[in-house]
Structure formats: C-alpha cells, structure tokens
Amino acid sequence: MILIIDDDSAVRSSLSFMLKRAGYEAQTVSGPREAMEVVRSVAPDLILMDMNFTLSTTGEEGLTLLRQVKIFRPETPVILMTAWGSIQLAVQGMQAGAFDFITKPWNNAALLQRIETALELAGSPKETTQEQNDAFDRRHIIGRSQGLTEVLNTIARIAKTNASVLITGESGTGKELIAEAIHINSQRAKQPFVKVNLGGISQSLFESEMFGHKKGAFTDASSDRIGRFEMANKGTIFLDEIGDLDPSCQVKLLRVLQDQTFEVLGDSRPRKTDIRVVSATNADLRKMVGERTFREDLFYRINLITVRLPALRERREDIPLLARHFADRQAEANGFPRTEFSADALQFLSRLPYPGNIRELKNLVERTILVNGKPTLDAADFDAQYIRHEDQKVAEGASFAGMTLDEIERQTILQALIRQKLYLYQSGGLHSLLLSLSLAKRTNLIPLSTYLLGNVFPSFALFPLSLVGCSIHSGQMDRLPESFYCLRRPSGY
What we know:
The chain is of the alpha/beta class. It has four domains: about 1-120, Rossmann fold; about 130-310, Rossmann fold; about 315-385, Helicase, Ruva Protein, domain 3 (Orthogonal Bundle), CATH 1.10.8; about 395-490, no CATH class. The protein has 21 helices and 20 strands. The strands form seven sheets. It has a five-stranded parallel sheet with strand order 2-1-3-4-5, sandwiched between helices. The model is unreliable at about 390-400 and about 420-493 (pLDDT under 50).
C-alpha cells in the first residue's frame, strides 16, 4: 500500500488515480494527524508526502511529520513532494531521511519510475544471493579482494533498479568500468550507454552538447544536432567528472534529472527522455556542497546510491591478477608471445604505492613489456621502468615541458634503452648496443641522431654510416641504415 499525504484534494485524487492505474493500492490522508494514525496501525510500502499543510510555506510541519514517520517506520521509503521554488526544503528532508523528492507539477512517468525504484530497493535483500552472483556480468573487472567484492555485491543488488548511482574514488580506480557493469546488468542493457565527460565540456557548449540544437539556433549551427540525453533515451547516461561541472550548468542539469524533460536549443517544445543516471567523480562532493561550489539539491539527486571504489593500495591482492590481465591483453593486441613474471617481479609490483591506481599499473606493465621484450620479467626490469614520484614532477616540469604525448612516449623509451644498454659498451658489447638502437630506429620508436649517441658517448666523434659495415672492436657489423651513426675513438684516447 502507498500512503498519500497532501492537504490538496485534487493532488490526492490525481495521485490515487495514477497509482491505481499502475497497479498499486493507494490510501490518502489530508494531514499529519491522520497520517500518523495510519502509520501507527499499518506499515505502508511507501509514502508520498507533501511538505506544507498550512498557509505557511516554511515546510517545518512536513519535516516534523517526516521525523515522526521515521521513528515508527524507519524502513519505509518516503518521497517528498514540493514546489520547484522550495527545493532547499526538499534537501532538508533528504537529510532527515527521505528517500527522494519530486517537484510539483510532476511528470507521471518519472514519478512512477522513482516509486518503482524505491520499492525495489526497500525490498532488496541485504546480502547478495548466489543466483545474483552467478547472473552478474563482471566483464573486464579483475580482482577478488574484499573491497572490490563488496562493490560488486552492491552493484548486483541495485543494477536491476533505476536508482541513480554516484561512483566515487581516486583517479584511475576504474569508475567507468563499474558504470558499464551497472548498465550491462540492468534492464536497459540492450539500450544505449552514453558516456559524457563533463569536465571536458565548456559552459558555452553545455546546452548544445547535452540537449542538442536546431539548425540556425546560433551562428555556427549549420545543421540539427542530437544531444546526449536524447541519444541515451531508454538507456543509461554516464556523467563522468561531475564534480568539474560549472555551477551555471548544474541547475540546467538538475532540471532534466528532476523531470526527465529538456528543451533543444532553438526549439521551445519540451522533450521527454527515459534515462538511468550514473555519475562519477574523484572530488569530495560533500565538501564542495559545504563550500557552495556544488549544488546541494543536485548532490542529493545523483547519489541515491553511492558506490566508493577502493584505491589499488587498498586491494594489493588484486595486483598480480591485474598485471597478468594487462600483459595478456598487450600480447594479444600486438601479436607478442606470452610474457611471464618472476616471483620477485610480482612482489615488487605489489609493494608500489600507485598514486595513479590501476591506470598507473597498466602503464608500468605495458611499458616494461615493450621496452624489454623478454619472455620472463623480473623485479629489476620493472624497477628500471618505474617512475619514482619524487622525480616525476621534475621530469614533467623540465624534460617533458612543451612535448606532445607521442614525444613524451618516445623520450621515455629512449631513456629506458639508454639505461638498459649503456653497460654493454663498458663490457665490450658495443656491437649489441648499436644493433639494439638500430632495431629501435627501424621500428620507428626512436629517431637516432647525433644527439642520441653523442649524449650516450660524448667522448666519441660521430660520422654517418654509409658502408656495408665497419670495424668495431675487431668485429664486423651488419649493414645499418644510412641515417645511423658509427663511433670513432678520438686520437690520443
């Protein structure tokens, strides 16, 4: 049974009719006294409650009634009803224990969706059943640590609902993968999954990107454009980096999340969208709310369910599994033979701090495989490629300043080759050094130049090699590219 509490008879009649058509049993009361009589005698499955029952618009009587209801029926979900102008009042209600809130006039489809979500979550078991675990699709989510298992259990329990989900955690912890898992395990799995990086959308382009525009809506609008909310209709929209959203855009986003309606730029006709909202951030939204840089009403709208992803340092037992996964994926993508890890290599990887989390581990494993090319990697191989974070700021600020991503990648590989091969010269293995560098040149990884060898061996003079071979340490080298350089010991050395 759904209990409707509102002093407006028209509202009670309208809601009762809508709920009965949807197959729910409804009971209506006009004020707090009658409501508490029902609550004391019967346990409603859900309560729809107005915030004002007198001429006053403070909403204090609504907050008082909510607190009383929660004393007698703490497990019963309460959805508040308020006018748009009193959203702050609804936020206070959420803080007092309300499940959700809607604004008047409401959208019937959106309201029914929230009622369904509330009832499903209220009736969900506290523990995930074995059937749920067996049916849960966790593709590309690697690990079996307790922290990750708890996250997956939560997802398995809520995925079938339409509840809005906020995913929090440090950068690089895999928030997008969790959002995808929520979608593919939901009833919307066959519908679109639309990803939006809100941190990358400027204030001026927000409405066009999210809601679309009509041809001629502004100077550069040469054709119609479909917005992200329309693209995600019937499916899931993933709002990544929501903490970076400009405050002026937050109220525009709140409107569509509240009513699931929007207006295309250049078209005043409201359009409806049926979406499930999943958001993610590495920011502390509660702190931002306190600092008034993030709207409190938007915060409560997006975090009906909050999922916190543990940092990689909190789930170290998953590091060997993740390293194995990244290595196998690298081999498959590039046609390489399978790379093995020694025991000391796995121990070394498991001890690192990983401020960049899974993204940093992936980068380290793939870089080490590419640079070494060995069938089995040991701790020394990973240690040579690991960037100490004390030195990383210096490197980024000096060596890599002004470089593109490709240039940074080439420079990193260059430095690694120099570290790995420099000792060969000292041990009489200059032939191997040059062949290694020649291979790097042929694979286009490093553009060899006077700069390269001149910095490795500054005491030697360089000249272009255009012969079939040259004598080095009394040995004959194979032909090298003309652009390669051979070394000549200075006279008197």
